[in-house]
Amino acid sequence: MINPDSFIYDIVEFIYFNCLCRFMSWNINNRKCLSCGACVGVCPVNALRLTEHGVEVDKNKCILCNTCATICPVKAIKVEK
Ligand code: SF4
Ligand code: SF4
Fold it and tell me: For residue 28, which atom of ligand 2 is closest to its CA?
């Protein structure tokens, strides 16, 4: 187990969030979206925003926790790790 206070931990965390996360996917079907804003409100890292075109995600912020997909009433969001 790597100590969370160590320099190695910082490096692993940096590589994970800046490299590996980009190969994982977050998708939304904006045709299904009701623009209710529920997903935006529950995102723990404020990665979502509601626009006139539907919901948009900042993939640099998203930690793929799946909370938005779970709360969406019409299952418009799909998060794949
Ligand atoms: S998967 Fe989690 S972190 Fe990513 S946009 Fe949805 S709620 Fe936010
Ligand atoms: S929770 Fe679902 S329906 Fe509501 S804004 Fe988000 S994606 Fe759209």
Answer: 7
